[in-house]
Structures are given as structure tokens and as C-alpha cells.
Amino acid sequence: MKTQPNILVSVSPNNIATITLNRVDKSNAFNAEIIGDLLTALNQLKINKEIRGLILEANGKHFSSGADLHWMKNMALETEQNNQKDAAQLAELLNQLNHFPAPTIAVVQGAAFGGALGLICCCDIAIASINSKFCLSEVKLGLVPATIAPYVCRAMGIRQAKRFMLTAELITVEQALELGLIHHICDDIQQEKQVIIQQILSNSPAALATVKTLCRQCEIAMIDQSLIQYTSKLIARVRCSPQAQEGIQAFFDKVPPSWSKVNDINE
Fold first, then answer.
1. CB burial string 32-67: b at 16+ within 10 A, e below
2. Which of 138, 91, 132 has the alpha carbon at shortest distance from 112?
3. Section 7-11 average pLDDT
4. CA neighbours within 13 Å on the CB side: how many for 240?
5. What would the pLDDT profile of 41-76 be if each residue is shown by its tens digit?
6. Please, what is the end-to-end C-alpha distance for the chain in angstroms?
7. Less CB within 10 Å around the terminal CB: N or C of the chain?
8. How big, in percent rounded to 5, are the helix, strand and coil portions of the chain?
9. Which residues contact 264 (CB under 8 A, 6 or more apart)?
10. What are phi and psi for residue 103, nearest 5 degrees?
11. Residue 88, burial from CB neighbour count under 10 angstroms (0-12, 13-18, 19+)
12. Is the CB of residue 109 less than 8 Å from the CB of residue 129?
């Protein structure tokens, strides 16, 4: 009988949301229930226009061991059609995390295996403790990292992703930094998390959301006249926006803009 929720969701007074993986007794392994809980949480949080950032972290020794093998064993007995419906849930979870309007930060400790790398690579920023380790372990079980592949390949590059998907070798935290899976190795991961939150809270929410959209557009589009016109129109619109006008004037007035919450970091 389950006595603890699979995930914990909170929003701080300074509007930083946190989703915490909480299936500690199973090393935060994914199953259909936890994927559904995560998807529900993301859908609820994204409609809250006050959210300034989203932290994705985990309780326990490990970030996540990936797919729950008892779940995989049961799904292997289902039809291919039912498996496709099941897999579509994880694909939609990754899509929603990738398109979350506010900045997203993955905070990783211990093992992050299989599908966990998809969650990490969907986040805008990823930091890891010195004891972290990573693995695209699917092929050892006769599986493939299909739903997470677009995000992992984007983070690591196709050729590097192929290497680690084909070998299923362990990726050290130092290699993860070099590969682009994470941005920083932390002696004190909670302190580094607070530094990043403070940086986000000092920036314009509208500008941050627009940067995320801009980066997605640059990722999928060729550098042609269409993209050039898109970026020109975008900066023209942003320059005339209320937050840009306020931010520039605040700089000249040597005062913080209204959105700056750096003094409220410990609220």
C-alpha cells in the first residue's frame, strides 16, 4: 500500500515551482503512474502565469534509475498498440517539460539512468553533485531510448549520443559536463541551485519566456531569410514591450525593475 505520493509539488513565495521525485524506495524509477503525476503537475503549473522558474529534483540517494523494470515486464505482455499508448504518455511528458514557459533547472544526484536523461536534457539548465553518474542503459535490456532520443541527441550531439546509446557504458559526472548533459558539477548542489534561482529572479519573466521560444525556433529552422526576418521582428516587438522599457529605464535610474526578486531569495 502506497503511503507517500510519487512526486511532491510546491511553489515558493517568490514563485519558483519545485517538482520533487519521491518514489525513494524504487530509486525514483518511472512507471505509468509517476509519469501521469508528472504530466498533471506540469500542466497545472504552466497555466500559472506567476511562475518564474521550475526546479526538477529528487528525494533519496538517486535522481532516478529510469524505467521501473516491473512496469516494463508487464508492458511486454501487452499488445503493441497498448504499448504505443503507454509510451505516448512519456513522450508527452518530455514535450511538456521541453516547452515549459519558464526556465527549468534539473538538480541531479546519484544515478540518472535511462529515461531520467530525457528529463534532464529537456531542462534548460542541469547541475549535478559530484557523486552523480549517468547511463543510457536501454540496450542492455533489449530496449531502445526512443522517446528520450531527440532531447539527448540535441544535448550531446548525434555522434556522441550514438556512442553511449550503443555501448550503454557508464558516463561519469566529468564526462557528462564535457558532453553537455549538465552545465555544472557542484560540491554544494543546494547552494548552486539558489545561485541560479537568484539569477533567474533578477531577469525579466517576459524576456526569459521569449528567449526559450527563440532558441527553439533557432534549433529547428535553417538560417535563411525567414529566420532572419523572424529575429528582426522579434527584437523590434520586444524593444517596444513594457518590460523592456521598464528595464532600460531602471538601468539609467540605478534602481531594480519591478520583477527583480533577488532580495527575496530566502522567502
1. eebbebbbebbeebbeeeebbbbbbbbbbebbbbbb
2. 132
3. 97
4. 5
5. 999 999 999 999 999 999 999 999 998 888 888 888
6. 36
7. N
8. 50, 15, 35
9. 13, 14, 201
10. -55, 140
11. exposed
12. yes
Which range (16-30, 105-119, 147-161, 231-245) has the least confidence? 231-245
For residue 180, what are the contacts with CB-CB under 8 A and spacing of at least 6? 155, 156, 157
> Which cell goes with 198?
537568484
Determine the Cα–Cα distance for residues 243 and 258; give it in Å rounded to an integer: 9
Enter the DSSP assignment of 159.
H
In whole angstroms, what is the distance from residue 216 CA to residue 102 CA? 14
In the chain, the percentage of residues whose pLDDT exceeds 90 is: 71
DSSP type of residue 31? -
